[in-house]
């Protein structure tokens, strides 16, 4: 692990009109870590990711750094250029485009054409079902395949940090396990750093190193995954299992 | 029979012009859900620019190129300076803005170039050939619009810019998260649309240029776009040809005073059968 954290979130706040949706959240993720963001519906998990990636404006005094570079005020379209890829809730797959067009879109901003082609091959190797359906509209994919496509599109950018918003949403437990295993393998093989938002805390904590628990937009607990799993009070109050 | 053939070709050539105008409306509508009522005024200024350049240099093609360049620039400026300011408001604001721009630019054209008619040359001034049922001007209109449509198809389907444009139109947020600079892509779309509008203007204006010359053509262009379905470029092309040929038959067999009425009639019949237009994808999207 390096000295500078790869992703450093300090005092991050944001508002929806008069409603404060995030209250000075701090979160530090080092390279190669998988970090869980847990909490009930409406706790601010999705808002946290959207504010980090610039889709939602951060309040004054907030700070987000990627690899030491301040990206707090960077527009969302520049985030991939800073090494941060965000898979939004539901995946954000463009159903009218083909599978391959969705994937190519993810790497389009990079100048290195040869490496773009290589990244495409790697994503297909990672997700064989996508390779078989590359010319089909993304709308014809199953829920699990769409989530694969969403993650694949993010990987096309060769990100250093992957923000993943509820990949298990609406998926069967078996598919969810596959996705969790995939994140684990990716980290082992490529050193990918992941911030994983999940409502399904048990499944998330099975692959993460550490995590935070949000409630009403504020961090109410943080610790290693083992600590969070062992804290019965926390589990009952916020994680629901 | 001879009349039928020549009416058909005339209709196709006119239809190509309506199709080009329809296409320019569809490109903007697809990207921003705004019908750009200022399009004929942008094309008008482009045509006046061509008029000035042709007068000064004597070269039609230099004028043609300057019209397309002026059209592109006007489209880019309209998006950057005006439309961008209202993009987060109700779409009605944008529509009213384009209407206002239409009136302002048409007035400006009258102030700068005068409200009198100027003669305006067609692209080709050969004599019609007896054996061929289509005139060189009609052929040029048809060929240039077909070429533009084909180029647009290639751009959309096979180029990185095309992929960015489609992504930005379909799902702006996903496009931005993939690194697409959606604002720039929108500007490019307006530029391309307005260049095509300028081409349509160059084809529609001859023989006489005046501030109101494109008004009727624009009505048929809107009809073409609506007929085909505002979100489908191929619909605009087909819609333009249907309107062009239909109106040509009406004016040839029934009477030219009925053409505008016929355009409305076609519109009413088609829209009552298929409210989203002949080729709209809206119905597919609902599933």
Automatic annotation (TrEMBL), chain A:
Record GO biological process: L-amino acid transport
Family: Belongs to the ABC transporter superfamily.
SUPFAM superfamilies cross-referenced by the UniProt entry: P-loop containing nucleoside triphosphate hydrolases
Alphabetized GO MF terms: ATP binding; ATP hydrolysis activity; branched-chain amino acid transmembrane transporter activity
Keywords: Amino-acid transport, ATP-binding, Nucleotide-binding, Transport
Matching InterPro entries: AAA+_ATPase, ABC_transporter-like_ATP-bd, ABC_transporter-like_CS, BCAA_Transport_ATP-bd_LivF, P-loop_NTPase
Limits of the ABC transporter domain: 7-241
Full protein name: ABC transporter ATP-binding protein
Matching Gene3D superfamilies: P-loop containing nucleotide triphosphate hydrolases
Taxonomic superkingdom: Bacteria
Lineage: Bacteria, Bacillati, Actinomycetota, Actinomycetes, Streptosporangiales
Annotated source species: Thermobifida cellulosilytica TB100
UniProtKB/TrEMBL annotation, chain B:
Membrane topology: Multi-pass membrane protein
Segments traversing the membrane: 12-29, 36-54, 60-82, 94-116, 139-158, 179-202, 208-227, 234-254, 260-279
Assigned keywords, A-Z: Amino-acid transport, Cell membrane, Membrane, Transmembrane, Transmembrane helix, Transport
GO cellular component terms, semicolon-separated: plasma membrane
Pfam families found in the cross-reference section: BPD_transp_2
Gene Ontology biological-process annotations: amino acid transport
GO molecular function: transmembrane transporter activity
InterPro entries for this protein: ABC_transp_permease (IPR001851), BCAA_transport_permease (IPR052157)
Entry's localization field: Cell membrane
Similarity section: Belongs to the binding-protein-dependent transport system permease family. LivHM subfamily.
Name this polypeptide is given: Branched-chain amino acid ABC transporter permease
Organism classification: Bacteria, Bacillati, Actinomycetota, Actinomycetes, Streptosporangiales
């Amino acid at each position: 692990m390096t000295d500078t954290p790869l992703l450093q979130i300090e005092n991050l706040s944001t508002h929806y009109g008069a409603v404060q949706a995030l209250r000075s959240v701090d979160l530090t993720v080092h390279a190669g870590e998988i970090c869980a963001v847990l909490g009930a519906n409406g706790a601010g998990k999705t808002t946290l990711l959207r504010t980090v990636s610039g889709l939602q404006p951060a309040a004054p005094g907030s700070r987000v750094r990627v690899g030491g570079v301040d990206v707090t005020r960077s527009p969302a379209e520049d985030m991939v250029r800073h090494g941060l890829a965000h898979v939004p809730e539901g995946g954000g797959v463009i159903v009218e485009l083909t599978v391959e067009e969705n994937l190519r879109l993810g790497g389009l901003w990079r100048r290195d054409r040869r490496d773009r082609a290589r990244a495409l091959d790697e994503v297909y190797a990672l997700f064989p079902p996508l390779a078989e359906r590359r010319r089909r509209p993304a709308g014809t994919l199953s829920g699990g395949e769409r989530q694969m496509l969403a993650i694949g599109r993010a990987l096309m950018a060769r990100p250093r940090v992957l923000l993943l918003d509820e990949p298990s949403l609406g998926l069967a437990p078996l598919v969810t396990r596959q996705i969790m295993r995939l994140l684990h393998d990716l980290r082992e093989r490529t050193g990918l750093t992941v911030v994983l938002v999940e409502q399904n805390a048990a499944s998330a904590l099975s692959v993460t190193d550490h995590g935070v628990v949000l409630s009403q937009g504020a961090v109410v607990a943080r610790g290693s995954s083992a600590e969070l799993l062992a804290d019965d009070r926390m589990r009952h109050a916020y994680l629901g299992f | 029979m001879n009349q039928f053939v020549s009416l058909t070709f005339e209709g196709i050539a006119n239809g190509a012009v309506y199709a080009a105008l329809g296409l320019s409306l569809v490109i903007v509508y697809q990207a921003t859900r705004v019908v750009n009522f200022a399009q004929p005024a942008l094309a008008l200024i482009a045509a006046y620019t061509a008029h000035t350049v042709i007068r000064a240099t004597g070269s039609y093609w230099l004028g043609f190129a300057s019209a397309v360049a002026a059209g592109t620039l006007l489209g880019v400026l309209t998006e950057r300076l005006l439309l961008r300011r209202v993009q987060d408001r109700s779409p009605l604001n944008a529509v009213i803005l384009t209407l206002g721009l239409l009136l302002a630019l048409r007035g400006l054209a009258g102030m700068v170039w005068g409200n009198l008619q100027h003669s305006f040359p067609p692209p080709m001034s050969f004599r019609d050939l007896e054996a061929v049922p289509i005139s060189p001007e009609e052929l040029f209109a048809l060929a240039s619009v077909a070429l533009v449509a084909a180029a647009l198809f290639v751009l959309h389907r096979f180029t990185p810019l095309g992929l960015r444009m489609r992504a930005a139109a379909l799902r702006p947020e996903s496009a931005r998260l993939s690194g697409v600079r959606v604002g720039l892509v929108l500007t490019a779309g307006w530029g391309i649309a307005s260049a095509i509008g300028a081409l349509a203007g160059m084809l529609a204006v001859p023989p006489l240029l005046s501030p109101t010359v494109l008004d009727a053509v624009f009505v048929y262009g809107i009809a073409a776009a609506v007929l085909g379905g505002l979100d489908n470029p191929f619909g605009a092309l087909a819609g333009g040809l249907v309107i062009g040929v239909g109106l040509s038959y009406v004016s040839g067999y029934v009477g030219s005073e009925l053409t505008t009425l016929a355009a409305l009639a076609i519109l009413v019949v088609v829209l009552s059968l298929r409210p989203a237009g002949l080729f709209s994808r809206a119905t597919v999207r609902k599933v």
